[in-house]
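SEVERITY: medium
COMPONENT: batch folding queue
REPORTER: lab tech (J.R.)

DESCRIPTION
The queue accepted two submissions in a row. Attaching both inputs and their returned structure tokens so the on-call engineer can compare them side by side.

ATTACHMENT 1
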Amino acid sequence: MGPWPPSTERKSCVCTLQCTIRRNRRREREQLMMASCGDPGIKCQLYWRWWLMGILALCARELDASNFTIQELLNNKYPHLVSADIYLDPCKSEGFVGDIALGRPEDDKYEWELRHQNNLDKHNHTDEKKRPERAATARPERLWEHAVIPYEIESNFSGEHRALFKQAMRHWENYTCVKFVEKGPEHLEYIIFTERSCGCCSFVGKRGGGSQAISIGKNCDKFGIVVHELGHVVGFWHEHTRPDRDNHVQIITKNIMIGQEYNFNKLTEEEVNSLGLPYDYASIMHYARNTFSKSTYLDTILPQEEPHTKKLPEIGQRIRLSQGDIAQTNLLYKCPKCGRTIQTPKGIISSPQNPPSDEGVHCEWRITATHGERIVFNITDLDIFETPKCDTDYLEIRDGYWVKSPMLGRLCGSNTIQSFISTSHRLLVTYKTSSRQGNHRGFSANYEAVCGGDVVMEEGILQSPNFPEDYRPNKECLWRITVPDNYQVALQFQSFEVENHDNCVYDYLEVRDGHDIASKLLGKYCGYKVPDEIVSSGNKMSVKFVSDGSVPKAGFSAKFMKELDECKNTEHGCDHECVNTLGGYRCECHIGYELHSDGRKCEDACGGIIDDINGTIVSPSFPDVYPPNKHCVWEIMALPKYRITLNFTHFDLEGNNQDCEYDSLQIRSKLGENEVRKHGVFCGSHLPPTITSEGNNLRIEFNSDNSVQKSGFAAIFSTDRDECVTRNGGCQHICKNTLGSYICACHNGYVLHDNKHDCKEGSCTHQINSPVGEISSPNYPDFYPSKKECAWLFTATPGHRIKIIFDEFELEPHQECAYDHIVVYDGDSNEAPTLGRFCGSKVPHPVLASSNRMYMMFKSDASVQRRGFKATHKTVCGGRLIAHTSVEHLYSHAKYGDQNYDNKEDCDWFIIAKDNGRVRLSFLTFEVEHEQDCGYDFVDVYDGRDDSSHLLGKFCGNKVPPEMISTGDSILLRFRSDDTINMKGFSVAYAEIESYEDDDDDFAD
């Protein structure tokens, strides 16, 4: 191409050219460029052509690097992909058994065979063969070494969630020898509490190979559910999958949802360990009776009657570990039978009295305090058989949670009183004797957790005493933190709840820039707002916590760490900009660039303005998985009077619900400077519908979160002249633009003429059964025709009432609405009582029917037409119901059977006997969120007309309540739901009975 011309000559004929030039418009831009160069000579034209070719070649390379041709997208099929760490994140697993995620097929061969079985294998077993007794893993590599499970909690969880997870872990620790410890550098295998798309799920036992996630998703953040998921981490399958389950429960195959049968298959000896314990109906790892049921009132697992009581055992509790769960865990991890986990602030421990003389004793006490506390251990009596190195009979104290923790002392013989103090919040005490201990007394000791002290560490955690429970009264804790020289101390709060006062005079946390009492005060805190990050000026910081004798709160949890400005070091590796953060740093890119997935390099930003006639748009890195935390915006701009059509050829984004709360693609038409119309938000693997813009501008916005990346999307766009812009396309009413053409449509009350352009009057009688929707007058928003009569019959689910809300209203006015008007009737015809007669321009108040039927009529006379009306119809639960001798029904929510009930339901049904008899109430189906005291969602039944009447029962869960009969002529049925966890709801049959009646076999039919 030759050398560049001299700069002075270039300046005279070079004009601005951006890399946004599109290939299919280069000829037009080339002509524009020539014109803008003035009157160049031949030499200038040659220079210009040389320069233009170089820039266009560069632009072409940039465009070709990410663009696909239309033919490529039409002719090729691209696979759906998912990020490579699928096997360590349960939600990225390729298979599930209930809430259990499966690993690689080559690693979990049997589980995958179990997952893909098509039946429950009822006949392919031999009853005479000895069966394992519990559904615990039989694979030793799945067990955690020394029962120590390191954990980490992702930073996006709130302090309340962190406290919940720690309470669940403490529950396991309190009854077993399993120990959950904060992940440290020495822990290569650990669990991460995270929130993933699969909701609640986990692997069984230790997976190996690094971190593995335990997902606690939305609506799973309940204590019992977290304890259940931790049970999988410990190493438990579901109780009903043990091989001998047919002796204890019956699996009712016909009631199981299609495609979910594999969740009820049995495990084999290869997967479970025979530990000699009986079947445990009360296990927190057991399914409920209707898990994966086709309908809430159909059992999928039916327990056998208990021989003594002749009652069916309760199954599926999510409240606490059962005695069987505890015994199973202690056997699985070979926990010492003597000793226990201690979580109280102080106490006394001693060796067992009168142990068997012919065998040794092995006891283990695991003393756990709160982060920031240390444990003082005082030996008050010691008399143990003495050997030279205390190698057979001894009392051992270790500064930590396990046998590899530093030893503070190993004692035997008859020593004087000694004291030990831990450097952390855990202490392990082991007492071991042989048969030679004989009549030696053993030992006795006391312990106490003390807070504060000198902390010389690079990082750690400080917590108020007894966190996450309420802190103890009258405590004063002073921590003096020291990190290495040339570093600062950074304090980052994770949770904060301390008794509030304007001046923090009662309970408070005080932070100073050094160890002296006169050091600069960095902050004094109380209340409920989490303090901002605090950084000292040097390598020392003091933290003081004080509580008085009243009003304890949950306290605080904070992480401290050494802090250094890594961006001052030129080896940070950032392409563009380095931003210092607490405990680390992050890279950022200049405008027009985005950070690569490696967190260091910068690459061209996705998105941009597109003015091509047609082309393609694909997600970043397509057809490979898109990067995490990506935000891309494309804006397609067509010529005036043109529309843009978008067709997807590939679509694979994380998520499958209507909220698309993880990864999403949002598409909107831009109609003006501040006016947009939303076409939809899309995710999942189904292709979105064809989308046509409402103007000449279409905006496409892509977002991905920090986990579960998929193969993304590919779409073809084209622009087309909008024939509807000119004279409405010749359509009398509505013109709808289509690709290459258009179609005509008509307003409400009209149908399309045979000529496909004009409209003529049609039928104006409507039967509406949907629970929500819109209605309008004929020809709305244009004037309604004269001499028109229309009728709407609304029918809702029994137990729900129709409500009409008028959004727009303009009819011919008259004092008595004698001309044009609307009449609403409280029933199914115009013979029902009138709820209102409306006309004029004042928007009527909402109209509510007393039952599940409403009839509405519109009538116009021969003169004076107006725009008419537009209204929304919906359903409202509750109301006054009349019980007749024939059986009638009501349902918990309007979409019962199609979807779960909504959040914050607030329904009262007053059921009154028609002829002063009594009301009989029978629940046919029942599935409401379970809680021990029915504190979340519940149904109350009162023997009377209000809640001051006698409460017949408060119900939740999935057990159908008993039949109830009022003592008087009425019953109040109340249903409430909170803002989380929705279930299938319930259906009820009710009828009037005579006072002397007490039974009717046909009542629930």
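ATTACHMENT 2
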Amino acid sequence: MSAEKISKAKPPKKTATKIIKLILIFIVILIVLVFLFVPAFISSKKGNRFVSGKINNSIDGRLDFAGLSMGWFKGISIAELSFADNADTISIQVKQITIKPRYGSILTGNLSFGQTTIDQPKISINLNNQPVSRQESVGVSEPIPAKAGYLALVMDVVVNDGNFKLTDSKAKTVELSEINSKLSLRPPGRQTDFDINLAVVNSKAEKSQIHAEGKIKPDKAIRNWSLKGTTGDLIVEVNDLDLESLGSILELAKIDVQAKGLVSADLNAVIKDGNFENLTGSIKATNLDITGPALNGDNLKTSLLNVAVKLKSQQQLINIEQFQFDSDWLVGQIGGMVPTTFSSWSDFLTSESDVSLNADFELDVAAALSQMPHTFGIKEEMKVTSGKLSGNIKANRGKLNGQVKLNELAGTIENKKLALSQPVTGKLQISTDKKKIRFDELDVTASFARINASGLLEQLKYDGYVDLEKLQSEFGQFVDLGKYEISGEIVEQGTLSVNKSEITGSGVSQVKNLRITSTDGTTAQEPRADIKFAFAVDRKTNVLIFNSIETNASLGQINIDKAVLPIGGNTQVPVSLDISAKNVDLEKVKPFAVLFASLPKETQLAGIAESKVSISSDKNIYKVTTDSTKIKGLKLTYPGEEPYEPNEVSLVFEAEINPQGTTIKNLRLESPRIKVNEGQFTQKNESGKTILTGQAELDYDWSAVSSVAAPYLPEGLTLEGKRKDFVSFLSEYPINDVNQLLPNLTANAKLGFEKAGYMGLDFGPTDVDIQIRNGLLKIVPFETTVNEGRFNFAGQVDFNQKPAQLKMDEPLQLMTNIKINDQTTKKLLMYLNPIFADAVNASGIASFSCEQLTIPLDAAAQNQAEIVGTVSMDQLRLQASGLLSTIFSAGGTSARGAVITIRPTKFVLRDGFLRYDDMQMDIGDNPVNFKGVIGLDKSLDMTVTLPYTADGRTVRLGQETTSQRIKVSLGGTVDRPELDVGKLLEGQLLQQLEEQLPNLLEKLLK
């Protein structure tokens, strides 16, 4: 039985083996077919179309080639390749590309393209008429995490007769021609060779030849390319390079620098383990001219620049055989033997080797400052005529001597000669006994300051003194130190300790009799401020730690406890800073707020403030928070306004600041009559724009807000009522152009009050919806009461205009039956007619229909205001109007107690002048007509038609007269009108002659 079972099991085994053999044969055949088919397919026309189609579907542009062929042994060949992007910015043409990749190396983790030859590549980039991207702000970039895997790139590239042409946004072109280069790129641990030759062609078709070659072998342990651990040779040659021709390349690289001049350079270096073992080189330049934003519009120039360097390693020392710098206004040289590695002067002075150093320099200060007045803040009218800054340093094992001196600094301003009263000097003497370093002398002396220090490096004692008034009087002659006059003294004493791991220090400073005065005479002063501090610098982590800073002054106390501040770019230690302020007397702070925070000097401020603010960081995000900022006993008073006296004001907020912007959240302001809740504000920069958003819940009493904001509100404006409103806004505008904030603003808000008063107009309860869309503010139609009459308005403000203007949407009956009072006559109606200028006890009813209204929101542009409308008044009574009295007394009558009616009169206000053709006033039953121009500058050029005729009759309403009424001119100003009464007297004289002439003739004939 068992034998039978065994015999039955054998056939399946043979079948399985046969199937496996067939599968293996099929796989081999498939591999052979793929091996044969893929190159054949790719090399065919159909394969060429397939490859080009796939590429063109995935790129922004079009790529073409005359032929593409592939062979497992002969490699890949592309003939007549061309590419053009859709924006017509980039154009590439290549005659032939040949690649011989090593396919097997890919399986071992190495990407090897083998020998790659590129024949006659021509690349053209045209940025003309393309938008230039803004220069990105320099910030701390986020580290890119390294991938776990590593792919070694191996390639040999040969470029034959290449050409690169770049046209910038200003249509300037740079051309790199005759590019013939070889590159043998190998992974770290193996030698990479390169040989680059090209010519830079300037606008005059002149060529500058550039050659660079080298052999570089980075350390195998370093995955990323770095000079550390690198060994090799480097040669660079540049011949008469025209720097101006590189402008297009600098723009493409987003380097905002403009340079002119010719530069030649020759550099030959031997590098060993990341250090220059031998270095010989020279740089020569003529007519050098460099400018850019960093120089604030200045130009750094020199007709000649020569730099020569020659270094050579000898065992553990570097022999500086030559290092010389020579230009029109700066000359310097360094020589000596220094250790190959030393991180401080301590290492240098205590070296066991025979080290030495000799260096000196001389700077023509007048030449430097004349080239860069804005960079150094030189006064515009100042001409620096002389000045020299020189110095030298000599050091050898165990000793170091140095000195620096600024002398002969002089200049002229408005033909007045100015000069420093004495030179500024500095001296340094250091000695060592191979274990400890001693500062025998460290002195800085000037007419306005001195600093002295001496002692061991581990316990260096120093003291200093600065006379602020003398500092300003000496350097303020040349440098614009601001619009303030400063006087006072600063005295400081302290101790420094320096060792390999840290630098520590402590001391006390005193600021005595500080006095700051602005050009308008505003003065702020602090009789004495005492400052105590203690700090440490961790030299390994590059972290500055303030253990404490205590400031005690008459205006209050400010303390900083345990502040941690990174001072190196590579440190990972976050910022940590706690600031506390106690007993800050706002009455004593007020003068400083007037000087530096634009607080109106008329404002009276009192109260005691306390605050705790914490500052921290997380990478490049800084957080500022306070939950304990309070003012007790605050009293804010502005002349003519009710004082704002809350018992206590508190402020809470959180802020985040990063390179992209600032966010303020959870802002809460608490006071009895002004509250801000849930305040959220964000400002961020992206894609060349600043995006500003915000929202807040407001709970306030207008009377309190009016007291606080009185200096910034129109004079005489009063507001009353309690409100709860929600405000939100958004604005996107170009970075660094805050003037575009309002033109791009979108916001929603409500404005309302229970009562408001302005220029004698008393408004009743009002609610107005305010909508702003892209800088266009819409005031939806609303109606309210004013002086027991009605007020209607609807309009808009376009902040895109300069200046922004308030405009009415359509003709409106703006005011109906409003009551007139003394304030309206003195503030408004006096510009309508001069009879209102000195009137008292005014009463009456006025109406105003407006056809057109345009009012600029900039007071300086008041002459751009335009108003076209019709005004009328009834039941008008005036007392003590000098002009009316003059008009009627000249006619032997009086307007006292008369009721006046001003008939509907159309007027036009334009270009700073109000005009009308006929304003008839019915004064009692006597008509008086006004015609002419009234200026916003109060000037008058008018004609008054009196209620008297040339024959001496008085004209009354409803009575016809055949005689012409007397017209007189009205000049002077609104508040001092000058009526020409000569015409009136002439008429009266004629009347008397007519009456007396018959009697006189009768007497003569008798």
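NOTES FROM REPORTER
The first strand starts at residue 61 and ends at 64.
No errors were logged for either attachment.
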